[in-house]
Design brief:
The structure holds three protein chains of three kinds. Chain A is α/β, with parallel strands linked by helices. Chain A contains twelve helices and 23 strands. In chain A, strands 4-3-7-9-11-13-16-19-21-23 form a ten-stranded mixed sheet. Chain B contains twelve helices and 23 strands. Chain C contains eight helices and twelve strands. By secondary structure, chain C is an alpha/beta fold. The chains are: A alpha/beta, B alpha/beta, C alpha/beta. At the A-B interface, strand 21, strand 22 and strand 23 of A face strand 22 and strand 23 of B. Strand 23 of chain A pairs antiparallel with strand 23 of chain B, so a sheet runs across the interface.
Chain lengths: 482, 485, 251
Amino acid sequence: MKAGKDKIIDEVTQNDYKYGFVTDIETETAKKGLTEETIRFISKKKNEPEFMLEYRLKAYKKWLSMKMPEWANLKIPEIEYQDIIFYAAPKKREDLDSLDEVDPELLNTFNKLGISLDEQKKLAGVAVDAVMDSVSVKTTFSDTLAKHGIIFCSFSEAVKNHPELIKKYMSSVVPSGDNYFAALNSAVFSDGSFCYIPKGVRCPIELSTYFRINAANTGQFERTLIIAEEGSYVSYMEGCTAPQRDENQLHAAIVEIVAHKDAEVKYSTVQNWYPGNKEGKGGIFNFVTKRGLCKGENSKISWTQVETGSAITWKYPSCILKGDNSNCEFYSVAVTNNFQQADTGSKMIHLGRNTKSTIISKGISAGKSNNSYRGLVKIAKKAENSRNFSQCDSLLMGDRCGANTFPYIEARNKSSIIEHEATTSKISEDQLFYCNQRGISTESAIGLIVNGYAKEVLKKLPMEFAVEAQKLLQVTLEGSVG
Amino acid sequence: MLNYYIVDMEKKFLKLNDKFNKQTSLFNDLINLFEENKNQIFKNDTKKISEVRKQALEKFSKSELPTLKHEKWRDTDLSKTLSKNYKYYFDAEENNSEIGKTFKCVVPQLDSLSFTFVNGWNTFESELITLEDGIIIGSFSDAMKKFPEIVEQHFAKTFQPEKDFFSLLNTSYAQDGFFIYVPDNVNSQKSIQIVNIINNDENIFLQPRNLVIIGKNSKLSLIHCHDSVNQKNSFTNSVTEIFLNENSNIDYYKLQNLNNQSTLLNHTNFYQNTNSNISSNSISLNGGLIRNETCVEIEGEGCAANVYGLFLMDDKQHIDNHIFIDHKKSNCVSNELFKGILDDNASAVFNGHVLVRQDSQKTEAFQSNKNILLTDTAKINTKPFLEIYADDVKCSHGATVGQLDNEALFYLRSRGISENNARMLLMYAFAAEVINKISIEPLKNRIDDMVKKRLRGELSVCDQCVLHCGTPEKEIDFEIDLSKI
Amino acid sequence: MLLNIKNLHVSINNKEIIKGLNLGINYGEVHAIMGPNGTGKSTLAAAISGKPGYEVTKGEIVYKGINILGMSPEEISWEGIFLGFQYPVEIPGVSITNFLRAALNEHREHQGLKPLTGSEFLSKLNEKKKLVEIQSKLTNRSVNEGFSGGEKKKNEIFQMAMLDPTLSILDETDSGLDIDALRIVANGVNTLRSEVNAFLLITHYQRLLDYIIPDFVHVLYDGKIVKSGGKELALFLEKKGYNWIKEELID
């Protein structure tokens, strides 16, 4: 029995990261390191209007005066910013009009990742913005969406074509000096996705951005901005992978969501950046600021995330509940194995009356990894009759990993109710034997039990993602029980 | 001879906040003060104790004065209390022993021995007392003289955070406090009551240092009270170290009833050996700023640590309960339950940190913090932390913030109970969960009364004696008959 | 012979529980093992199904001609041995439907069969549900989570029906059942009972044997089978209790 388990552990820990390949493609990069020159180079490369350059330089100055945050329960090695390439783009012809003009190597890459950019072979009703390294490669279905008045394009295009929206909303949720990594992103961000849903429109298809890091020694700094006007609805998905490399790569992104009166935004992420090898070498440092603003009454934002990748994850999708009766949900499964570290959770800031938030977090730690939930629930004095419910469960697999829960609860009025619950458990020998006795091998049994444990979160994902996420959980964890 | 200094916190504190001049003269002044009064502080020390103090002072000089920027202090603001001037005495004030004789904190029907400290100094007539069953009780300063080896073996041997400004300050300066030594195999039926009274004409800064050692298979009930008898400012920085040997037990009660001008920083460190049990219960009824820092180090298997607390705060009072339970060994259980009711502009902090280390398998750790806010100006910040590195464990935590249940309130009122009484009844019911954990019946009844009175707002009105304790009173009960509900 | 246990010795934490047990079961037979608490009945069931921690120190368990000692629990399951648990474990979040589909398909894979399609699986599920009078909504719930004692046991019989084992060992399946549930469980067993399978019932009381008539009854005492007989032995035990066995042994 023991030997059998060891065998499974070996198989799994040696399980190769499926997306670890590198695309051989000509890349145009900025010089290594970060100076004012780098920022001017990026801005010029992108033909940006003056206001963007000013915005970047202001953020850069702020970043210089800031310090790397140390409060997270993470061991972050020194990051040498002067060794990072802050801009890398697959070389391409001028503006792409049809798919034929996209480098076949690139198409191939995304095909290999299961993302078809060819609208003929469309992914069941999903519009995709594919981002490789620093730039958006191709956005599908833009025309179809345009008929509804929906704008879905790369961030760079939005800067060019919709500067008024960018000026109005960029940094309205995450100020450029919000935190160290947000400031860094604001200074050097290269591309990302932009999405605008006009008043009263229900977006007919899922929108999705697929992020891919390819070039070596580069950082990826993209930003996403989603604006949902009054009474609109959109479901948005984000996926990410990176090649397998020995050095760590930095990813510092910003996502901002604005939901106006009666609008609803669902944001789903399956994060599968390269996690490093089983000795903890390599992998992506994932420092992301995601925040939504429930601006109008009855607005709703929901975050769902499945985090299986990255060497280090530092990420707290949050929500400011400003409109009365607004609602925010956060559903998360975070899995860490081998030497991965994750410090992730959510912040719910209740400002409006009768606002409601829900946090469901399921952490799973295996190997020698460390998995922390960190959350803040803050109910302001004026947020009368507000309600929060948080549940943060941890599942431990093996005795060399850590599972931590750090909730911060701050209440400032007498009519609100906050409840927080947390439990820590492991997969019991009895559960495994029961499954075994029915003929289910240990490997499958763990997958089954973990998926059951994470079910509450997985069922919140759009269909296309849920299946992928389930498989991912199984692959990441199979045989981790020793 | 009265030997005191004025510690001018104000100027230095402001300077400290200036980040370009971090380690400023407060440290230098405090260290100079230490140098000047070395002879007085070291008076009863053995060589080893003096050495420990010097090391603590060395670390102290490298520590930082806690401000809101420190994670552990982000919700408790000391700047106001530290901006006052305090007198620091290196000797007992002679005229103070009288109050020690007149002030009594009598718990009716409780078989106890009471010892009183005034402004941090003992008021005992004799030095160390040895009870029939061999228990030794007395002042910490006398214990250093009489039992140097026991004190050396235990002094500053519990959890000593490297950079903890106040506990290091206490270790460097502390001169007096209580000392209790329970030999092996003693199961004392008598409770020991330690009463700390603050009776001052001017603002004072005091640093009691207490040491409790419980031998193998022994049991101790200890009641530790903090009271103030007038409305002057005070700053108490107290450290209590409690050692539990194999199979020993402690029932420890903290009763805190201080005026609104007082600051109490109360460190309690438990050190648990195999199969020992602690039950700690802190009842905080009044105080300007109270911070209870309780640390439990579980160093043996089969231990149980029960840490409970109740706080009822109003006005601008602030209470901060920091609990750290360090599960270093397997097969141990810890339980935390803290409940609080906050009225007016009161604020509270709960920070419960449970650490289960890698090889501490079969640990069970439960943590719960429940709060009721009665007004929109009361504040609560709660942080129940779990940090777990072993997999075969059962751990859970929960925190709630809410109000009195309106349904229940309506139910009671529909049965003819006035709104006021109904509210009180519900508040009392909320608090009772903690009160019921008190295992000494007379003490439980007494605290029960005090809580009821506190809920009616009766306690804080008296400025002569906060407790009304001098005369045992008739039992207080609600006007309504509970049995009819 | 389907199952042949020879001189079996089983220890848990170095404490010997089964002390030289012999038992033979042929196709088409129903055996009942009875005995006072703590004599090793459940240990026997666990040892046959390969539960970790149950160390066989001596003897062998030959099933379909092969010694199954040292096989993993799932391998034993694939070979067609089913254990109905005395205390079925709860698995939160895993629906019975998903659980059984995973189990059934691993069985089929082992037999070299293709996995069942969704609709094939569902029709099998519905067919077997009727057998144990299980309510539809039960299969959408998580495995055993929040089940009453009776529901748990019915769920075990339902799983047995789904997996179609050759040898079913039912460990105290009757405990905690009301008379209706007991009848349903017994009906399930009686319907499945055939010439190509066999049952080993472990029970403390004779009650179950009113509904499932055994071919053989064995009395387990202190880790050994001390008496064997027909169904009349069960009735005798019911009347006389277990004390006479002790006395008989002493004599």
